[in-house]
Amino acid sequence: SDFSIIKIDTGIQLQNTEMHVYDVLGKEVVRLTEIHEHEFKLERKNLESGMYFYRLENNKKIIASGKLLIN
To answer: Are 55 and 65 in contact (CB under 8 A)?
Structure first.
């Protein structure tokens, strides 16, 4: 499939939330803005297989970060 469902449980209300996805060289490859739900889609069709890093920001504060593996 060309997308992944991302579920987050932060325990806070999401406002001005963005998700940034970076490749292993640190280049931003995806930016999702206006996230208001605790479940959303990440389009993968333009991402090559490999490891990526993400950062989730709410009101410009980092609330989550981690790794993504795309097959």
So the answer is: yes
Beta bridge partners of 62: 57
Q: What is the pLDDT of residue 42?
A: 87
Q: Residue 50 to residues 21, 58, 66: CA-CA distances in angstroms?
A: 12, 26, 14
Question: Which residues face 21 on adjacent strands?
Answer: 30, 54
- The residues that bridge with 65 in the sheet, in sequence order, are 55
* Spatial separation of the C-alpha atoms in residues 45 and 62, rounded to whole Å: 26
Q: What is this structure's pTM?
A: 0.86
Q: How many CA atoms lie within 13 A of 10 on its CB side?
A: 20
